[in-house]
Write a structure and sequence with these properties.
Helix 1 crosses helix 3 and helix 2 runs antiparallel to helix 3. Helices cover 43% and strands 20% of the residues. It is globular and about 40 Å long. The protein has one domain: Type II restriction endonuclease, HindIII (Restriction Endonuclease), CATH 3.40.91. It has seven helices and seven strands; from the N terminus they run αααβββββαβαβαα.
Length: 183
């Protein structure tokens, strides 16, 4: 099993072509040098980093010497600060548990902090509903097609801005960034 530093070093050696190849491997469930879910988790952060964002790699939060949270990453881009949660399930869509968890984590952060859940396989109806009900703690939902779209265009920070603006304008936490129009 690789360490967090080894995962970070491995992913930072990849550029856009390498990320697209890794994305394909993730879809085929062929990432033998990665623990389950880790390749996807690091791919998302690296895409943001390549697009100019400052990222904080996965880490634990301790309070009184006890781990209270595991954060998949933090993204700072285009004036937004975002907690990232990545879910790479084989086939099933993400249910409402990760939305509730991220909402709880956002309650411990400054008001302007946004949450984003990245799921290769999408979200269930209850997860989507809870994301709408989580406001004012903003939990934005990203599906696999949006991630692939961003990788193909080598631009993901703009997608975060589009998703956030749609949430501000219309309360849409699952705005499809492939539409590319700010509502």
């Amino acid at each position: 099993m690789a360490t967090a530093a080894e995962y970070q070093s491995r992913i930072e050696s990849l550029h856009w072509d390498g990320l697209r190849a890794l994305w394909s491997d993730i879809g085929q469930r062929d990432t033998p040098d990665w623990e389950p879910g880790k390749a996807f988790e690091y791919l998302v952060l690296r895409a943001f980093q390549l697009d100019g964002a400052d990222v904080k790699w996965p880490y634990s939060v301790k309070l009184f010497e006890e781990e209270i949270e595991q954060i998949d990453g933090v993204i700072h881009c285009e004036g937004l600060s975002c907690l990232a949660e990545s879910k790479d399930f084989a086939k099933e869509a993400v249910d409402n548990g990760p939305v509730a968890k991220l909402r709880s984590q956002l309650l411990r952060r400054p008001t302007g902090t946004v949450g984003s859940i990245f799921s290769r396989t999408g979200f269930t109806g209850p997860a989507r509903s809870l994301s709408y009900l989580a406001l004012p703690q903003t939990v934005l939902l990203w599906n696999g097609q949006e991630i692939q779209y961003a990788l193909e265009r080598e631009r993901i920070c703009r997608s975060l801005t589009l998703k956030y603006r749609a949430c501000v304008a219309d309360g849409l936490t699952d705005y499809n960034t492939m539409e590319g129009i700010i509502p």
